From TrEMBL:
Protein name, per record: Dual oxidase 2-like
GO terms for MF: superoxide-generating NAD(P)H oxidase activity
Keywords: Oxidoreductase
Organism: Hipposideros armiger (Great Himalayan leaf-nosed bat)
Keyword Signal tagged: no
SUPFAM superfamilies attached to this UniProt entry: Ferredoxin reductase-like, C-terminal NADP-linked domain
Amino acid sequence: MVVAELNSNPLPSLQLYLDGPFGEGHQEWHKFEVSVLVGGGIGVTPFASILKDLVFKSSLGSQMQCKKIYFIWVTRTQRQFEWLADIIREVEENDQQDLVSVHIYITQLAEKFDLRTTMLYICERHFQKVLNRSLFTGLRSITHFGRPPFEPFFNSLQEVHPKVRKFGVFSCGPPGMTKNVEKACQLINRQDQAHFVHHYENF
């Protein structure tokens, strides 16, 4: 009886947008003017939603405290999480205000740094300069070989954003990686300049 009544009086269709899933420790990314997201292994999962959420809200003209996100993706191979590459590609296509900067660190090649790896590195840099895209991923994101040098990276952010006094750093992944992020934050915080607030989850 209820079904028949619904069929005879159809309701207007509604669009529903569902945000998430966000990791519990990463929900405060929007409270910082500049946030750094560091994902390794399966720990990249919560950041995929954050990246899409940021670009979507920006496209709607929403007022946000967060003006810039740096996403550092650490992976053994570019094929390990191809689904994430698709999301990053979508973010790049819709990020009209240059809100998101992505750095991909492929660690497997750096473990065997031989002549082949050197040639791949040279080709990657040339391809990125000429076509503004990565040879490995096809993304505009910057691809690096090896593990992220967190302390120099954080120092460079202070130069790019000299007026920002507090950066949000959110890492999710293997304990070794989050420990390195924490160590870099502590070293930077001793310099009595900008403060890097670190939140992390281990997988």
